[in-house]
Design a protein that fits this description.
The complex is a heterodimer of chains A (110) and B (114). With 110 residues, chain A is mainly beta. Chain A contains no helices and 11 strands. The chains are: A mainly beta (110), B mainly beta (114).
């Protein structure tokens, strides 16, 4: 079983739609969680950190469920520019080990 | 803003060559990382460093070495390049040991070994 698993997609949605991605992790000692965005042939860029109480940044909402060991990303009112691959990132406690999911591809169409 | 700069965007080398990939960050970050990214495999950690002259193996260190002589610079070395090292290489840096510190990436180097 992979340490961090994501549905690879692709998710094809129309502009204005709401879309949600889930990511599961296997190490219950994981302490820090992030979502990154990666455009085609570019580097990953930090989208947002994920906090225990859930957090929102504009149209993006991130949630953490420690009991079930998953994090989620919700995108409301999708824009064409949201088309990208979204990487789930999990960092273990007490060290440097950071695990990147393989990513979920999103295509937003007009 | 954090700036992580990789020396080359695209590089073509021949089998058996010694290849150097350079990475510089300007935010005085303690930690630096080298990854490779291949389709379907995601990001895989090659080496990381948490201080000058310190280095630790990641998940796939075979065929690679690293050097960190200065805090801002982290070099990846392919001792004798092979075709299976054709990949996108990404350097990243992060601050200290804080759990909530994310990594910031350079633009990446697309390396082709012929």
């Amino acid at each position: 079983r992979k340490e961090v698993e994501q549905d690879p997609g692709p998710f094809n949605v129309p502009e204005g739609a709401t879309v949600a991605f889930n990511c599961t992790y296997s190490n219950s000692a994981s302490q820090s969680f992030f979502w990154y965005r990666q455009d085609c042939r570019k580097e990953p860029k930090l989208l947002m950190s994920v906090y225990s109480s859930g957090n929102e940044d504009g149209r993006f909402t991130a949630q953490l469920n420690r009991a079930s060991q998953y994090i989620s990303l919700l995108i409301r009112d999708s824009k064409l520019s949201d088309s990208a691959t979204y990487l789930c990132v999990v960092k273990a406690a007490g060290g440097f080990k950071t695990i990147f999911g393989a990513g979920t591809r999103l295509f937003v169409k007009a | 803003d954090v700036k992580v700069t990789q020396s080359s965007r695209y590089l073509v080398k021949r089998t058996g060559e010694k290849v150097f990939l350079e990475c510089v960050q300007d935010m005085d970050h303690e930690n630096m990382f080298w990854y490779r990214q291949d389709p379907g495999l995601g990001l895989r950690l090659i080496y990381f460093s948490y201080d000058v002259k310190m280095k630790e193996k990641g998940d796939i260190p075979e065929g690679y070495s690293v050097s960190r002589e200065k805090k801002e610079r982290f070099s990846l070395i392919l001792e004798s390049a092979s075709t299976n090292q054709t990949s996108m290489y990404l350097c990243a840096s992060s601050r200290g040991l804080g759990q909530a510190q994310p990594q910031h990436f350079g633009d990446g180097t697309r390396l082709s070994i012929l």
